[in-house]
Amino acid sequence: MARRPRHSVAPVVVDLFAGAGGLSLGFQQAGYRVALGVDSLQAATRTYEANLAGAKALCCDVRKLSGKDILTLVGGEVHALIGGPSCQGFSTSGGLSRERGRDLFDPRNSLFTDYMRLVRELRPAWVLFENVPGMLLYHHGAVASTIITDFLEIGYEVAPIILLAADYGVPQLRRRLFFIGNRTSQPIFAPAATHGSSTLWRNYALPFAHLSRVGHTTTGDTEPHVTFDSACDDLPALAEAEAIDGVPYPREPSSAFQREMRQNSSSLRQHMAFRLSANDRLAARLLKPGENWRSLSPETLPRRFRSIRPYDATTMLRRLTGDRPAYTITTKFNEATTGAFIHPRDNRTLSVREAARLQSFPDEFLFLGSDSEIRFQVGNAVPPMLGRALAEALLPLIAHDVAGAALQPLRASIQLDYATQREMIGLRGARKHTKDYRRDTGQPGLYDGALAANDPAA
After folding, report:
1. Distance in angstroms (rounded) separating the CA atoms of residues 193 and 124
2. Does the pTM of the predicted model rise above 0.85?
3. Are the C-beta atoms of 179 and 388 separated by less than 8 Å?
4. Mapping DSSP to helix (H, G, I), strand (E, B) and coil, where does residue 128 land?
5. How far is CA 174 from the centre of its chain?
6. What total of structural domains would you count in the chain?
7. In angstroms, rounded to a whole number, what is the distance separating the alpha carbons of residues 297 and 284?
8. How far apart are CA 45 and CA 33, in angstroms?
9. Exactly one of 59, 60, 87, 232 is catalytic; which is it?
10. Closest among 94, 91, 89, 92 to 108, alpha carbons compared
11. Is 82 helix (H, G, I), strand (E, B) or coil?
């Protein structure tokens, strides 16, 4: 994989709900020792173990996993516990609803309690909990309030932050929510943006800008966002359902991003496109770069889009443009009707390698499994470049806590103010909903009254 700098100390990391290993790869690239990745999808753990040198992969249900099991597999102390449970129950992909359309009883909504149970059992110095920004909106903020409260009850101070992947060199407008924290009383930092665009959200119908707390503005210290072409225009054209695998690159890289993606890779792998539905094929033939379903005539518009308001679903059935980052890559990047997945020039949706590049996976990273399992792994991953930015921002702090080491900062960072962060997500108003949330879901706080923050047994 890409760079693995050597430091005087390499904190030990365990990744829960690890998927293919995007977050783990970012931490490994930053110089941590990633010891173990856990996921319930067998294809994902095969991918993980094949690509993350020195890391073990365990395929199991986290609900059946104990801290003792993890310590046995790792062979020592865990310094940082990272990971993101399945997030579809909190996703706002259908809109920015706070509650409507969400299932309070969706079992995926409670997986974070198992992450926190393992935090209590393992007592790592640092934690990093990743999810979708919709978690902050869900049930009037009660979920976020519950998470912070439960962390506090076992002795961890955490701060939430929403980061835009494009602000860290990823060619994709993807937001992720991170709860970052520790039990060592160290300040908490997030990486400062390295890329940005002051006009990114101009003319957008939905109020995206209020969700992000870092980036979105250019200064003299930030570079422009990496565009689709800067990420992918060295890859050869493909026809629908065509695949290219194991052949030399047809041209030299044209950007720094492409050069980084091609490090340690001598041939092009998994550049394979998918067969389209009739609706997708028609859209791919008719739409120009930047156009979406609104540009189609009523007689060619798929029936499901005819009742949508013109200012809604603006990224659905959309052709990308080469001079901007891509939109969020999902597990259905092969289906044009589900998102902005039509190639800027070819009459097809994105290939596996293009989607992986847009997620910032290097070309040497190969995904194992069926076509649908591969798409699932790519679409659900945390972009490795985003993970690396977080890992680098935290490394000096974690190294000091676990080994007393004094490392120089690896990148510019921003200290998070706990009080300000909590106010941002409306925790004062959310607290009155937390009790109702726990009552309605039948899930009382994992540590309500059971532990004091200074309980040595914890």
Report:
1. 27
2. yes
3. no
4. strand
5. 8
6. 1
7. 14
8. 17
9. 87
10. 89
11. strand
360: left (phi over 0), alpha (psi -120 to 50) or beta: left
Residue 455 identity (one-letter amino acid): D
Residue position matching structure tokens 């980084």: 260
φ, ψ of residue 167 to 5 degrees: the values are -75, -5
Residue 456 has pLDDT above 70, yes or no: no
CB of 142 closer than 8 Å to CB of 436: yes
Q: Please report whether residue 43 resides in a domain.
A: yes
Can you give the residue range of the structural domain that contains 411? Answer: 12-221+384-441
pLDDT tens, 30-72?
A: 999 999 999 999 999 999 999 999 999 999 999 999 999 999 9
Residue 253's contacts (CB-CB under 8 Å, 6 or more residues apart) are 234, 259, 261, 262
The stretch 220-238 carries a mean pLDDT of: 93
Residue 25 lies in a domain: yes
* Residue 60 annotated in active site: no
The reply to whether 335 falls in a domain is no
Q: Are 37 and 12 in contact (CB under 8 A)?
A: no
CA distances for 326 relative to 82, 143, 342, 390, 448, angstroms: 26, 30, 10, 21, 43
Domain CATH for 134:
3.40.50.150
Q: Which two tokens stand for residue 204?
A: 């957008």
Residue 338 falls inside a structural domain:
no
Q: Which two tokens stand for residue 261?
A: 């993606």
Angle (deg, nearest 10), helices 371-380 and 42-51: 70
Supply the Cα-derived Rg of the chain in whole angstroms: 22
Q: Would strands 33-39 and 12-16 be described as parallel, antiparallel, or unpaired?
A: parallel
Distance in angstroms (rounded) separating the CA atoms of residues 329 and 176: 12
